[in-house]
Fold this sequence. Notes:
This is DUF2911 domain-containing protein. By secondary structure, this protein is of the alpha+beta class. 21% of the residues lie in helices and 40% in strands. The longest helix has 21 residues, at 26-46.
Amino acid sequence: MKxxxxxxxxxxxxxxxxxxxxxxGSESAESEVASETKEAAETTESxxxxxxxxxxxxxxxxxKVQYGSPAVKERELWGDLVPYNVVWRTGANEASFVELAxxxxxxxxxLSAGKYSLFTIPKESGPWTVIFNSDWELEHGHFQYxxxxxxxxxxxxxxxxxxxxxxxxxxxxxPGIIIRWEKLxxxxxxx
Length: 191
């Protein structure tokens, strides 16, 4: 009887140990990818200004934008949180960037295919300056901005509405890239 109990106990221990090992082959790889994806999503969700990626076509040309999307949170934005006449990263956290699959014209000026950080200089009145800068991987936004890397600067007239949008958005839609936040609409024409 003791021999039988020893065999059953050994078999039970073997089963428990076998169930604790990682799956082999593609199941292990799939669970690892799922885990990394979940961690990335949790990191993004825990950011006060979520990382957003938008992609679309304008005039048949593919455009992608990536930006941190801050919220108004009852703050005074223009001229306070976002000062006038100072380079703004146009979003939150790291610099926002635009990826162009092919050459385009922005507000009538040529811009080659590639990736560019996107900055603006807000103004209290009149057109804003929109900047495309070749240094697109800036971890700290405008704190690392260097004007010598500007590839293109254009002037864009903001439109102020009556309704307010809580979170900043950048949409790829006609006429190009439209930035909206609070009562601002900044339509950057791309062809």
